[in-house]
Amino acid sequence: MNSASPFESPAESPIGDPMGGADTVIPRPVLITTAEGCFVLRHDTVIASDPAFEHAVRWLRGALGPAMRLTLLPGPRGPGTIQLVRAADLAEEAYRLQVTSGAVRIEAGGPAGAFYGAQTLRQLLPPEAFRAGPLGHGPWSVPAVTIADAPRFAWRGVLIDVARRFLPKNDLLRYIDLLAMHKLNVLHLHLTDDQGWRLEIKRFPRLTEVGAWRRESNVGAAVHEKYDGRPHGGYYTQDDIREIVAYAADRFITVVPEIDMPGHTQAAIAAYPELGNLDESLPVGTSWGVIDNVLNVEDHTIAFFKAVLDEVLELFPGDYVCIGGDEVPKEQWRDSPAAKERMRELGLRDEDELQSWFVRQFTEYLIACGRRPYGWDEILEGGLPRGTTVASWRGTFGAVTAARLGHDVVTCPFTEVYLDFRQSGDPAEPVPIGSIISLESVYGFEPVPSELTEEESRHILGAQANIWTEHIDSVRHLDYMAFPRLAAFAEVVWGPRRRDFADFRRRLRSHERRLEALGVEFRPESGPRPW
Ligand code: TNX
């Protein structure tokens, strides 16, 4: 900060801009009009709020209070206050934000809208405000502005693969805050896979006693090939999950759990060999890719996973539960007398129909439990019960097929929004996996496939960016892969269809300062950052 001038008490010169400014918000608000002047936020500024918007108020107090030394106590509405007001003409997630020299006024349709208004307000402050502290005493200046804002899509999601690489609880909570900052509202947690089972299930303790830990193997293989050669493990207890779910809910984020079946299950089979097709015990998977070891189709296996889902449903109150369904090699079923018997009994022609039958056991179970099943686009093969939502990852084919059949869809094509893929062709990028998905191409992603009619496209709930972690071995690396592409993605799912990348880049300069202040180790636009 500048040294204090003898003529001007520092307490009287509001601290504003340096690299912030009214029109630097990400995701960009739908309508934004800047004006002259500013609101001065003082240490004793009060908040007058509709009682229904207590979440937003609590969050503002927590985010700004300690670092900026603001008390933000409740007080009567009047000049010089921050006001949160309900507006009957606005949708649940919509808000208007008006900053004048006299007041900050957030009008919102519901608690989520008020929360998003509060998030935008924070971004109007100088990027410094994103530090945990210590910051100056203020007063702080908020530039005058009029904003009207609402999301384009209801599903603004991110998948984090905590199965391949366990993300400790506190790191996950930090990510939830980062998602909230970008007005994202779904966290899809990929909790189980061949290489790890990360969710405590009381009825089957070996799932985490055995399935959460993998040993080193193939030591010596190059890190960017099939194996990483390192032991690894960790899992969330049920108390951890309750905390994560509540923390997310406080920030209007729904956690969608995924129990991937019947493929991507070697960790479960390692814990309970009777779930598999072979008469041998298997280790928790140590190689990446699609693995032949899938679940068997016997009654006890179906019952086992229904019992797993019972505990999942207790922990995750959201509507959607993902049952995976992706990448299921059928070789072991072809060789299995039990699978052949099942097919005979049900009159199924091939193993694809068997997979469809398997998936249906769980989609129907979830529907009977009052939930909405969600799965990767392979679950379309063989037909799906109504009320099932499809995650379309293999191009747009799944999205188009599902929408035409009347299923809701979340689009996440691997060619566009897989944030585990590298960000440029520069050899200095960390572990160069996948094709190049640049910031600009993420920004250009359109969630609604062009083949769909307007009527059909109502089934596109939104999109999600998927962060698989086979090759992301630390939180630093996760930050690097996620940001700033997730900021671009947030604008795709929040903002209007027509977007301007040059304008996004301009605002990104301020946003990078915000991320820096938060300690996010994003990839700079200028090129790879060596660690
Ligand atoms: C495909 S997308 C997978 C994941 C991998 C990912 C790597 C999907 C449903 N399955 O198991 O982690 O590719 O990019």
From TrEMBL:
Q: Which EC numbers does the record give?
A: 3.2.1.52
| Start and end residues of each Glycoside hydrolase family 20 catalytic domain | 153-495
SUPFAM superfamilies with a match to the protein in the record = (Trans)glycosidases, beta-N-acetylhexosaminidase-like domain
Q: What class of enzyme is it?
A: hydrolase
Quote the InterPro entries the UniProt record gives.
Beta_hexosaminidase_sua/sub, GH, Glyco_hydro_20_cat, Hex-like_dom2, HEX_bac_N
> Boundaries of each Beta-hexosaminidase bacterial type N-terminal domain copy?
24-150
Pfam families xref list: Glyco_hydro_20, Glyco_hydro_20b
Top-rank taxon of the source lineage equals Bacteria
Residue ranges of the region described as Disordered: 1-21
Name the catalysed reactions: Hydrolysis of terminal non-reducing N-acetyl-D-hexosamine residues in N-acetyl-beta-D-hexosaminides
Recall the GO molecular function terms of this protein's record: beta-N-acetylhexosaminidase activity
* Low complexity biased stretches: 1-14
UniProtKB keywords: Glycosidase, Hydrolase
Q: Which family does it belong to?
A: Belongs to the glycosyl hydrolase 20 family.
- What PANTHER family does the entry give? BETA-HEXOSAMINIDASE (PTHR22600), BETA-N-ACETYLHEXOSAMINIDASE (PTHR22600:SF57)
Q: Any idea what this protein is called?
A: beta-N-acetylhexosaminidase
Q: Which organism is it from?
A: Nonomuraea africana
- Lineage summary: Bacteria, Bacillati, Actinomycetota, Actinomycetes, Streptosporangiales
